[in-house]
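The data layer described in this paper is built around a simple, fixed record for each protein. We quote a single record here, exactly as it is kept in our systems:
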Amino acid sequence: MMGVFMMSKRSPISLEVKLRVVKRCLQNETNPGYEVKQLGVDRLTVTDWIRKYKADGYEGLKVSRKCKVYSKDLRLAAIMDVLSGNHSIREATKKYHISDKSVLTGWISKYTSGKERKPTRKGKDYLS
């Protein structure tokens, strides 16, 4: 079967393999559980690929070389949805098209620690 192609710590699986796996899962030729075992990745990795592909197509599977910018309102809405119990972290990540659940957990951690919001070097107000 397919091997793991090491490219970087952030994306150990090649774009071609991700695309092939996602398409096979969407066409019901395989399932995420089977692919996880074949690729040796975290159990939620393949479902994240499918979510990103459904949201953004081929571009959603690419590893971004730059940070995605999220508005203050979006960040706050996602945080409140999780803290209020309306959505799980995974559900809010999907709802707000956040690149990864670790991004949202970082925002929540900073928000709940009481750190003040500080402007960035560009003068934009971000949750810090």
Notes: DSSP finds seven helices and two strands in the chain. Residues 69 and 98 are 10 Å apart (CA to CA). Residues 1-11, 119-126 have pLDDT under 50 and may be disordered. The radius of gyration is 17 Å.
